[in-house]
Automatic annotation (TrEMBL):
This is Peptidase S9 prolyl oligopeptidase catalytic domain-containing protein. It comes from the Bacteria. InterPro entries: AB_hydrolase_fold, Peptidase_S9_cat. One of its GO terms (biological process) is proteolysis.
Length: 692
């Protein structure tokens, strides 16, 4: 692909919360966070030429190939089916691009400048797109996250922030300035958005308003004129629409005397076209006691909910008038329902997702089930196919196909022509890189329980080829699990000769209430024992030897890596922790002053585990060398966790190296940072465990 100079100019600013003088003594001033817009002629290429061009320029270093972020994620189809939009992360920033599916012309529209992240983008109508954005700002010494919504024409013009913009009259922080609830196919000039309405102070002749709380607004996508649909509701957790685009349900947190959110949520519904709300249910926010809203039935008379059933989570239907108990739609004696699957612009319910060793959808819509099976067969039968989007007339479907050894390719299926054509590879620079198969396994824990896991071996290797260096790689969350499919982090190290085990330790979700327990913080001893047993199993099987065994984790996985090294100092010879939690009491204290404090405190709990289960407080037991990474704008786990851990280890004379990335959040979402992280980790692990 021929490179051309990119002409850029600044678009309209995106406001962010900031500390400033305010007539009412609260924050409300503006900080300009900029997005940069590409001119429409900056880059253009045919889809057929894009992947080979990138492949020709791919770096030789294996860590660089895996560290470069995807060139296409979040792809969506325009309502008329003639264009797709996608976010390109590969060039050091996030860029929204569109492409003509007939000509292959690619037009870059807008890119971030590092202050705000584009998390998702979609078509609001045939001519206009919208992007949900997240950022963070320092307010009174606390890192505060905020959300905004940006709209732009497909020709790159009329960039505008939609939703509430902060003004000097606002009392409080404009933290939730706009979140998309729904597009409106029957009214394509408007969308529905939720935002937090702030009180306004009186200034001169302008009258202030005492109304505050979360509202739903019907927003003009061109000029941001708004009309209130629902609210304000003080402690609203979410709003949702039915399949016709009408707001029919909301969730509301219980409130405490200090206005913090409590651990109970009430669900309120209303009839189509109605104005009065009735309480549908009250539910605990505990993982396996909650009734979770999933979506509306096509006729709008029922809601789909995920509920506890015989020790697992099942999908059920519940009439909105409460005339009968929930009716089970899908359940499994061994696995949880993942959630309702919806499809198309009206979010029609089509199935339920669930996972065992693989990923599955149990379809209600048999036509879609047959279509998906036909597409899988057409692509060779060894792929997972996910139907992403369809044109508003239903004739064109956007899908992605991937597997454990194939990072993913987007395709367009034309129903009328019966044609399936590839559009774009997600990670084109890995096209010719050999990848290791990710095999489901299980191994015995110390108490006899069988722990499900995934084992990725170096390409072309079998277990009989051991011993080889081993990485145990526990997942984050901890209320999460690992799934079968392509995993860039595991594959990075498998490609360099490491065996990688990823355990779904007890505390993981998806396997039922007993498996989840209280969670892997409060039941840390069980979770950590399961994780260390993965290494013991591999040693016993001859896959590795103890002197070649390391552990690497991100977020809770980083916590687990450090805590494992503290509990069993002789087992692991090297520890890599990325954005780790290092102190459970601090994790609770980090939420002081935020509305969600009680929810965090409930999750972490109280008791001796706050000390015994905190790696920083057990650092004197760690013998293995430690490598830490963290971003300074991490709002999930504050950077102080890694800073204090590194300081503690250094004071104890323990071997530790700490790498900090300025202005990056929990995901380290920048190619240069990920490449550096992978290069330093690979060098460290090869040195400590022996080069493969």
């Amino acid at each position: 692909m021929t490179s051309k100079a990119e002409k850029v100019k600044l678009s309209e600013g995106v406001d962010a919360p900031a500390k400033a003088a305010h007539p009412a003594g609260k924050q409300g001033a503006l900080v300009m966070t900029r997005f940069t817009r590409w001119c429409a002629g900056g880059l253009a290429a045919l889809f057929s030429a894009l992947t080979p061009a990138l492949a020709a320029d791919q770096p030789e270093d294996i860590n660089a190939r895996f560290g470069i972020m995807p060139s296409a994620t979040g792809m969506r189809l325009s309502p008329d089916g003639t264009h797709v939009s996608f976010i390109d992360h590969s060039r050091g920033y996030e860029g929204l691009k569109i492409a003509n599916v007939e000509t292959g012309e690619i037009i870059p529209l807008i890119r971030s400048d590092g202050e705000v992240r584009m998390t998702s983008c979609l078509w609001l109508n045939n001519d206009r797109l919208g992007c949900q954005m997240l950022g963070s700002s320092n307010v009174d010494g606390k890192l505060v996250g905020y959300q905004r919504f940006l709209a732009i024409d497909k020709n790159g013009e009329n960039t505008r922030q939609l939703g509430q913009r902060a003004t000097a009259r606002h009392v409080g922080l404009n933290q939730f300035g706009g979140q998309l609830i729904d597009i409106l196919p029957d009214d394509p000039e408007h969308i529905l958005m939720s935002l937090e309405q702030l009180r306004t102070s009186r200034t001169g002749s302008q009258i202030g308003s005492e109304e505050e709380g979360f509202t739903v607004q019907r927003v003009d996508v061109d000029n941001n004129r708004m009309a209130k649909v629902v609210g304000p509701i003080d402690r609203a957790a979410f709003f949702a629409t039915d399949t016709k685009g009408e707001v029919r349900i909301f969730g509301e947190y219980s409130g405490h005397s200090d206005q913090r959110y409590g651990p109970v949520m009430e669900l309120h519904v209303r009839e189509p076209g109605g104005h009065g709300w009735t309480r549908l249910a009250e539910t605990s926010l505990s993982d396996y006691a909650a009734l979770e809203f999933e979506g509306f039935s096509s006729d709008g008379d029922e809601v789909y909910v995920r509920i506890p059933y015989e020790g697992h989570l099942a999908l059920a239907r519940l009439p909105i008038d409460g005339s009968r108990a929930p009716e089970i739609v899908w359940s499994n004696p061994n696995y949880d329902a993942g959630g309702l699957v919806t499809f198309g612009p009206n979010k029609r319910p089509v199935g339920v997702s669930w996972a065992d060793e693989g990923n599955h959808i149990e379809f209600f819509d048999q036509e879609l089930a047959q279509l998906q099976n036909s597409l899988i067969a057409a692509l060779g039968g060894d792929m997972e196919v996910s139907l992403i989007d369809e044109s508003w007339d239903g004739q064109r479907i956007l899908l992605v196909a991937s597997s454990d050894t194939k990072p993913g390719t987007y395709y367009l299926f034309d129903r009328s022509a019966g044609e399936l054509r590839p559009l774009m590879d997600i990670r084109p620079w890995l096209k010719n890189v050999a990848l290791g198969s990710r095999q489901p396994i299980s191994y015995p824990a110390a108490d006899g329980a069988e722990i499900p896991a995934y084992l990725t071996l170096p390409p072309g290797k079998t277990m009989e080829a051991g011993p080889m260096p081993l990485l145990v790689m526990p997942h984050g969350g901890p209320s999460a699990r690992d799934y079968w499919g392509f995993d860039w982090l595991a594959q990075t190290f498998a490609a360099q000769g490491f065996a990688v085990i990823q355990p779904n330790y007890r505390g993981s979700t998806g396997f039922g209430a007993q498996w989840s327990g209280r969670n892997a913080y409060q039941d840390w001893e069980i979770a950590i024992s399961d994780i260390t047993d993965a290494a013991r199993w591999a040693i016993g099987e001859g896959l590795t030897t103890q002197d070649r065994t390391g552990i690497l984790g991100w977020s809770y996985g980083g916590y687990a890596a450090l805590q494992s090294a503290a509990i069993d100092p002789d087992l692991f010879q090297a520890v890599v922790a990325i954005a780790p939690v290092t102190d459970l009491q601090q994790l609770k204290d980090d939420m002081i002053g935020f509305m969600q404090y009680d929810l965090r405190a409930m999750s972490i709990g109280t008791g001796p585990h706050l000390v015994e289960g905190s790696p920083r407080r057990q650092a004197e037991h760690i013998e293995a060398p430690v490598l830490l990474f963290h971003g300074t704008k991490d709002t999930n786990v504050l950077v102080s966790h890694s800073r204090r851990m590194a300081d503690r280890l250094e004071k104890l004379g323990k071997p530790v190296d700490y790498v900090e990335f300025d202005d990056l959040d929990h995901q380290l979402p920048q190619s240069e940072a990920r490449i550096e992280m992978l290069e330093k980790s690979a060098s460290f692990l090869k040195r400590e465990l022996g080069a493969p």
